[in-house]
Design a protein that fits this description.
Layout (H helix, E strand, L loop, with lengths): L4 H9 E3 L7 E4 L3 E4 L1 H14 L8 E5 L9 H17 L2 E3 L6 H8 L6 E4 L13 E4 L2 H8 L4 E4 L2 E8 L8 H12 L7 E6 L8 H10 L7 E3 L4 H9 L19 E6 L6 E3 L7 E3 H4 L6 E4 L7 H11 L9 E4 L4 H10 L1 H8 L2 E2 L19 E4 L15 E4 L2 H10 L27 E2 L4 H4 L23 E8 L6 H4 L13 H4 L11 H8 L2 E4 L12 H8 L2 E6 L4 H10 L2 E5 L13 E4 L2 H6 L4 E5 L4 E6 L4 H9 L2 H6 L2
Parallel strand pairs: 3-4, 3-6, 4-5, 6-7, 9-10, 9-12, 10-11, 15-16, 15-18, 16-17, 18-19, 21-22, 22-23, 23-24
Antiparallel strand pairs: 1-2, 2-8, 5-20, 13-14, 21-25, 24-27, 25-26, 26-27
Length: 642
């Protein structure tokens, strides 16, 4: 039986376990990346391990999230990360060099390699033929230290593409179609692998758009083959030597097959407030819009920007519409400025932002109250834009640009027959904003610079025999990490200050949550299905840990968040019978009796509701390693042997 692309890469990096679906496997990690919103904590964790130098083939620290510097906090974090990178052997991508996933695709991604990053959209690297996985910062820190990265061996879903995209139909529409089919829960425990004749019609930036937003499926990652199109992209980046051919065997077997005919695809949009609420632009109709934002790690490549510039050329942004554009990297911005495309954008009335994440994480450009914003981003969770009552629609760059001109959500096919853009055969290569690390000899005399906003991460204790606590909060389905630990310009600067950050935890769901936790001393959270979807931010586990949360019981968990909870030493359980969710109320006192002994021996676990004199059976699927981590009080204690 042949192997898929994903299985070939996994097989070449397998250091523990067997490739049996549903079992835990350990992978050797070739590359890591961090960004500054999660990086400060990741490097604090790395420093706590006492390892003098990273042991990966390549590790890169990017500054792209917290670039709005309204106080000293972000600048201090950047200085800290830069000093760690210089001393510990990482490359440091300075502010202004671009979004981590865009830059990594351009300058560092290699077919056949493994990459984990402390950002959920790390699967962007799958567009170039990598197994690239989003993970918590502590997992990344362990990998930087040479440790193994563990996942559950996923099922492999074959999304078979046929035909080719029609004019004004984009790669963004492909992934929106997949989301419409699979939903935000449909990819959990799966790798999405793209095959078929339609793959040949897609450039690497288009493939990266698709793998990037595959994170919204809840998938472990997404991957494309590495073919002559990949080689062409790497050659244009002066990295042809990094290319290898990588394709699935003809007799490869997939667990599931989804077929999409690109000839039949039309412009789509994800409606508020979830990426899988997808309808055709035509079906939604010409709603009046207030704002258009083009950019993010999903749609900020040179190809995307050239299409936008061509649409805007000689036009004017509609009255009462604010259009902002953020090219994804310095390379993209520089090339736009030299070929005249940037001038077309500026002439049309676009507001040009720096090459960073910006509005996608609520870092500026919040829409007006009750505003309608079209965005080429990957998430439209309620409140993520910074405006609680705004309606965010996720669309392609073509749809966004045409709509910015008309002032209404508009099917871009109304614009004309086709777009005439030419991609260069050679990109401008200038890595002067990527600092190289010091040599091991030079590093010995270097100091790591800590700012006053940088506080130690919270410590956890060994799991006690019995956990008894009140329900501090009960929430519904599809709770995102944005609900748990919000992003935005007011909060992100404090990602390195867990005590201060704690006051914002779950504020969108219950503004009294933090103060209640402090009064209770310890607590348990009850959640619905797909709890913790969205960003990989481990703060959504570390802040509840700081607030005394001992266990979280839900109908189901998102993959990365569940792993982060275990890393933090918080017990994640699911209800055996989902109806039991309805029997528990906030304030009920629950008891997990003899829980340490039970999970250590793999026995059934029950939670007693002392307030109602009831008992409910719970389920868990911890590996032997995860069990040991929970007993120790988390990954850091486990790694240090405590």
């Amino acid at each position: 039986m042949g192997l898929t692309v994903a299985e070939k890469i996994i097989k070449n990096h397998l250091v523990e376990g067997e490739m049996i679906k549903g079992s835990e496997i350990g992978l050797k990690i070739d590359q890591t990346l961090t960004q500054d919103a999660t990086g400060t904590m990741a490097y604090l964790e790395f420093e706590a391990m006492g390892i003098p130098r990273v042991k990966t083939e390549l590790s890169v620290a990017y500054i792209d999230h917290n670039t709005l510097q309204t106080g000293f906090e972000n600048a201090d974090d950047h200085r800290f990360i830069g000093s760690v990178a210089k001393k510990r052997g990482l490359r440091f991508s300075r502010p202004g060099n671009g979004i981590c996933h865009q830059v990594h695709l351009e300058r560092f991604g290699k077919p056949g390699k493994t990459l984990i990053g402390s950002d959920s959209h790390t699967p962007t690297g799958g567009g170039i033929g990598m197994i690239a996985i989003g993970a918590g910062g502590l997992d990344v820190a362990v990998a930087m230290g040479g440790g193994t990265y563990y996942i559950t061996m996923p099922k492999i879903v074959n999304v078979k593409l046929s035909g080719s995209l029609k004019p004004f139909v984009a790669a963004k529409d492909i992934i929106l179609k997949v989301l419409q089919i699979m939903t935000v829960k449909g990819g959990v425990g799966k790798i999405i692998e793209y095959t078929g004749d339609g793959v040949k019609s897609l450039s690497v930036p288009e493939r990266a758009t698709i793998t990037n937003m595959g994170a919204e499926l809840g998938a472990t990652t997404s991957v494309f083959p590495s073919d002559e199109i990949t080689k062409e992209f790497l050659k244009a980046q002066s990295r042809e030597e990094d290319w290898i051919e990588l394709k699935a065997d003809e007799d490869a077997v997939y667990d599931e097959v989804i077929e999409i005919n690109l000839d039949e695809l039309e412009p789509l949009a994800a409606m508020p407030h979830m990426p899988d609420r997808v309808k055709s632009v035509k079906e939604i109709g010409k709603i009046k819009i207030d704002q258009v934002c083009i950019g993010s790690c999903t749609n900020s490549s040179l190809m995307d920007m050239l299409k936008v510039a061509e649409i805007l050329k000689g036009k004017t942004v509609a009255p009462n519409v604010s259009l902002s554009i953020a090219p994804g990297s310095k390379q993209v911005l520089n090339m736009l400025s030299l070929n005249g495309a940037l001038s077309s954008m500026i002439d049309a009335g676009a507001r040009i932002l720096e090459s960073a994440c910006g509005p996608c994480i609520g870092m500026g450009q919040s829409p007006n109250s009750k505003g309608i914003s079209l965005r080429t981003f990957n998430r439209n969770f309620e409140g993520r834009s910074g405006t609680a009552d705004a309606g965010i629609y996720l669309v392609s760059p073509e749809t966004a640009a045409v709509s910015a001109i008309t002032g209404y959500l508009t099917d871009p096919r109304e614009f004309g027959d086709s777009l005439k853009i030419t991609m260069p055969g050679q990109f401008i290569i200038n890595d002067n904003m990527i600092e190289l690390p010091a040599s091991p000899e030079e590093a010995e005399s270097l100091e790591i610079i800590y700012g006053p906003n940088i506080k130690p991460f919270p410590t956890s204790e060994k799991l006690p025999e019995t956990v008894t606590a009140k329900v501090a909060l009960k929430v519904g389905n599809d709770i995102t990490t944005d609900h748990i630990m919000p992003a935005g310009a007011k909060i992100l600067p404090y990602r390195s200050n867990i005590p201060y950050l704690s006051q914002f935890c779950f504020k969108q769901c219950d503004e009294n949550f933090a103060s209640r936790c402090k009064e209770l001393g310890k607590g348990i959270i009850i959640g619905g299905s797909n709890y913790g979807q969205g960003s990989s931010r481990e703060h959504a586990a570390l802040v509840p840990l700081y607030l005394g949360i001992k266990a979280i019981i839900t109908k189901s968990f998102a993959r990365i968040h569940k792993a982060n909870l275990i890393n933090a030493g918080i017990l994640p359980f699911t209800f055996k019978n989902e109806i039991d969710y309805d029997r528990i109320d906030e304030g009920d006192e629950l008891s997990l009796e003899n829980v340490r002994e039970k999970i250590e021996n793999g026995e059934k676990v029950f939670v007693k509701n002392l307030s109602k004199n009831e008992e409910y059976e719970l389920e868990y699927d911890y590996s032997e390693r995860q069990t040991a981590m929970l007993l120790a009080g988390g990954l850091l204690n486990y790694t240090k042997g405590e």
